[in-house]
Specification:
The chain is an alpha+beta fold. The chain contains eight helices and nine strands.
């Protein structure tokens, strides 16, 4: 069978337009949901038999849809079936040709093509800033929203962070914010090329909860603990349950490996006394 051009984007558009999750599609086709995930990620092309069966599922909601429709140009396909093109609402329109516009254009493509491997439930491991040799674990979920953005929820230690994930240039950027503690977090991890991420290794940047709110960068490990059900309500309930149940990762790293990674060197901090940050009143007074 000749590969269909832009099939991942076309499948994403069709499934989103019909509100069909990959779990629902996998159930209807009798395949594992990871297989559907690989089709959507573009790492595996479905066989002609499976694509024909998928076409039948789509035709139940879009009368007249056939196997031949996949070969149609994606814009014409969207127009004829009254579907929304992928990315049309995922990221705001680029504001000109500046650096922000370039990032948004990159993010639009990367979200469509490379966010799939990171969807699921996760456990983080990070060193304590205040207690020597202690490791803190947070639990959370990563899921693609209907508008194309990738939502991140992380909780632990009485805080609940929410934000967004952007896979860019082989890395994973996550920006989180806790509305209760008014605490932003930034996480940068090395990404994966395979269709299912199991462990992410990266850096966490935050303001410490000391009296000076000292800026700190530290190592962080993120391990998969489960897969999404594909139902938003069920997934959020499972996320909240994880905060109490604290499940183990699916392929847990050895405790020694975690400690070696997290405590291999001093944290990078910008302490108040040693900081070069300065201000001025504009009238000669500095501090």
């Amino acid at each position: 069978m000749r590969p269909v051009a832009d099939l991942p984007a076309k499948m994403t558009m069709v499934l989103a337009g019909l509100s069909l999750s990959r779990v629902a599609v996998a159930h209807r086709l009798g395949v594992d949901k990871s297989v559907v995930g690989r089709w959507l990620a573009g790492t595996v092309h479905p066989s002609e038999h499976n694509l024909a069966r998928l076409s039948q599922v789509v035709a139940e909601a879009l009368p007249g849809f056939s196997l031949a429709d996949w070969d149609e140009d994606i814009a014409a396909m969207a127009h004829r079936h009254e579907l929304t093109l992928p990315g049309a609402h995922a990221v705001p329109a680029s504001p000109g040709n500046g650096s922000l516009g370039a990032f948004l254009e990159t993010a639009r493509f990367e979200l469509e093509a490379h966010a799939g491997p990171y969807e699921g439930f996760w456990r983080t491991s990070r060193p304590s800033l205040l207690m020597n040799d202690e490791i803190f674990h947070d639990y959370g979920l990563i899921r693609r929203r209907d508008d194309g953005l990738v939502e991140v929820r992380m909780g632990g230690s009485g805080l609940d962070f929410s934000g967004y994930l952007f896979p860019v240039s082989g890395n994973v950027f996550v920006s989180l914010f806790d509305p209760l503690g008014r605490s932003p977090l930034t996480v940068l991890c090395r990404g994966v090329a395979l269709p299912r991420a199991m462990v992410l290794d990266g850096l966490l940047m935050l303001a410490a909860l000391d009296s000076d709110r000292t800026p700190v960068a530290m190592p962080i490990l993120v391990e998969r603990v489960g897969d999404l059900a594909g139902d938003e309500t069920a997934d959020l309930a499972a996320y909240r349950a994880m905060l109490d149940e604290r499940p183990k990762p699916q392929e847990p790293l050895a405790e020694a490996a975690i400690r070696e990674r997290l405590f291999r060197g001093p944290f990078l901090t910008v302490a108040g006394a040693a900081s070069l940050s300065r201000g001025s009143t504009g009238q000669g007074l500095k501090g």
